[in-house]
């Protein structure tokens, strides 16, 4: 399934401009992101690597507009998210962002196809068209036929992650944010998920950011940036050609 040309042509992806984020730390503030600048183009698959505590999750939360930086800008398709009201930001998140969390946060009582249809229902989409699109999306991530009718506990970890990815894609996002997608999977299944993310990035023209500890998966992305102490390492924006 390929994103339509009109949708693609208005996309510019994700840009962070000199973003600084601090958290309260007793009397002081802890700097989790220190003037981080980064751009991710439509159709580009970027990995963010770095040690624990280096700021990877904070970067993802800021890009998701879930945390507001102290300074700097987060632009999604050229829109400065800091200039939006909370209501507008929520709307932008719904229209432009797909998020795949580390832990599968699927609803236990719903089948795979229903996990996607909940979103369609919230948007007031026509049920029949939504059901067809959900089934098509699930098939495109490798979940076919009867598996679409299974509940999370009847699926493997890798299959649950595929449902998460399909659900994140359901709103045709411009930006796809992925947090440690392979942490609960063995190497082979982890590789399959990262390959799937590379394919959906290409096919759906998303600007994809994946946070990962799993260095074995880094050769499947377009570009890697390394974080240390809240900073992107020097030259990281130009990436490592793998
Ligand atoms: N809610 C919070 N309040 C205070 N400090 C925080 C908060 N969240 C994160 N931090 C601190 O900010 C820094 C960056 O944390 P962050 O979670 O972004 O790192 P990370 O690279 O994602 O780590 P990990 O790989 O362990 O998930 C760390 O020093 C962390 O302790």
TrEMBL record:
Keywords: ATP-binding, Nucleotide-binding, Transport. One of its GO terms (cellular component) is plasma membrane. Residues 16-242 form the ABC transporter domain. Gene3D superfamilies: P-loop containing nucleotide triphosphate hydrolases. GO terms for molecular function: ATP binding; ATP hydrolysis activity; transmembrane transporter activity. It comes from the Bacteria. This is ABC transporter ATP-binding protein.
